[in-house]
């Protein structure tokens, strides 16, 4: 493969294991999101790929070349992060052109390239503006243009929009993949925000305590989280502890809200996920739960019910427009175990 190969990377700082056997691939022209909570090793991983920090073990290969002996400034990789500082005494064009001058590019080419990237980020008319007069979103787009201008082989973005307000962040995270794809730019996008990770990249690596917890498309990860950690991190509710009483039939699991058939043997200590979005109101369905509504809330595209089932509070989401019962009402909920239940280790 011609892109990036990360193999078995290990890194410790004193007694802290920042990265533990991290391996993944990234094809050229593709974007990969690295998603995980604070402290899981995301920035360390980027710094190792960039050549700023050496790994204790493992290899990074780019376009078939082992990078172990290639210093950071010869890797042709770009790094953009949240506190990305623009040069305050320069205008927008000068900021973008800075890296190109460093590459000793001809002035006419610098001018053309600067114009191209400013157009890409929607700032064509901003070239002569002093960067101090820009809004936060405009500044981050200048920073992006400056990172893109030297055409790095690989661009790494570390929480680039973390400091911006939600509306602006949402707009930029939709624009970013378009901009990167239009340049066939290979990129790694690091974030602790699931929505951002899923919006920006077709493939996502989820990290937990220095290890890779799951790799997949956003759909694969959301529909089939590989572990209890991933399910919790994605904010999925209805995580039910599984026990194994003596009279349990083969393929069944016992949970605080009842027994369910999951079609396979499940060990003690596992967790059953009842997907909040795979339950219908009313019965009789293949499997029926009875409960009492505790709370109803409106969430935009969906509405949420909090329901007490056998003393356990469960969350269910329904499309907006579905007629929902009121708090205090008795409800029957039905679901297809194949669709709605998932055993997590
Ligand atoms: P955040 O999202 O908060 O930036 P992160 O996922 O990027 O977190 P890292 O910054 O890679 O996480 O840190 C991973 C672990 O390694 C943390 O426990 C951190 O304290 C530790 N660590 C990182 N760099 C160093 C260092 N230079 N010296 C000591 N410990 C470090």
Which topology of the largest domain does CATH recognise?
Answer: Rossmann fold
* Helix residue percentage: 25-40%
CATH superfamily of the largest domain: P-loop containing nucleotide triphosphate hydrolases
Strand content: 25-35%
Radius of gyration: 25 Å
Low-confidence stretches: none
Give me the side-by-side strand order of the main sheet. 6-7-8-3-9-10
Heterogens: adenosine-5'-triphosphate
For the terminal residues, how far apart are their CA atoms? 33 Å
Mean pLDDT: 92
How would you summarize this macromolecular structure in one to three sentences?
The protein is of the alpha+beta class. The chain has helices spanning 42-50, 92-102, 107-120, 136-148, 166-182, 194-200, 218-223, 228-233, 337-340, and strands at residues 4-13, 16-26, 31-35, 57-62, 65-66, 77-81, 154-158, 186-191, 203-208, 211-216, 239-241, 252-255, 258-261, 271-274, 280-281, 287-298, 302-309, 312-319, 330-335, 341-344. The model has no long low-confidence stretch (mean pLDDT 92).
């Amino acid at each position: 493969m011609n892109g990036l190969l990360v193999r078995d990377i290990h890194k410790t700082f004193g007694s802290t294991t920042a990265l533990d056997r991290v391996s993944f691939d990234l094809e050229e022209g593709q974007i990969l999101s690295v998603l995980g909570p604070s402290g899981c090793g995301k920035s360390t991983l980027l710094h190792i790929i960039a050549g700023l920090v050496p790994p204790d073990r493992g290899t990074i290969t780019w376009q078939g070349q082992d990078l172990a002996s290639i210093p950071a400034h010869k890797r042709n990789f770009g790094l953009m992060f949240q506190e990305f500082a623009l040069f305050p005494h320069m205008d927008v064009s000068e900021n973008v052109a800075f890296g190109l001058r460093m590459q000793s590019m001809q002035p006419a080419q610098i001018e053309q390239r600067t114009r191209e990237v400013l157009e890409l980020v929607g700032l064509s008319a901003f070239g002569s503006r002093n960067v101090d007069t820009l809004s936060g979103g405009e500044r981050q787009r200048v920073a992006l243009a400056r990172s893109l201008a030297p055409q790095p082989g690989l661009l790494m973005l570390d929480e680039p929009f973390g400091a911006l307000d939600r509306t602006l962040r949402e707009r930029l995270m939709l624009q970013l993949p378009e901009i990167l794809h239009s340049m066939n730019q290979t990129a790694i996008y690091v974030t602790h925000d699931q929505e951002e990770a899923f919006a920006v990249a077709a493939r996502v690596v989820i990290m937990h305590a220095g290890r890779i917890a799951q790799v997949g498309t956003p759909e694969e990860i959301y529909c089939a989280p590989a572990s209890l950690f991933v399910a919790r991190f994605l904010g999925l509710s209805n995580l039910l502890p599984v026990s194994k009483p003596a009279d349990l039939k083969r393929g069944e699991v016992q949970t605080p809200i009842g027994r369910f058939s999951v079609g396979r043997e499940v060990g003690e200590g596992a967790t059953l996920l009842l997907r909040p979005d795979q339950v219908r109101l009313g019965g009789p369905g293949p499997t029926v739960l009875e409960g009492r509504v505790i709370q109803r809330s409106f969430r935009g595209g969906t509405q949420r019910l909090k329901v007490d089932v056998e003393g356990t509070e469960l969350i269910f989401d329904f499309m907006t427009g579905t007629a929902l019962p009121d708090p205090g009402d008795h409800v029957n909920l039905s679901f297809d175990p194949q669709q709605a239940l998932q055993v997590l280790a």
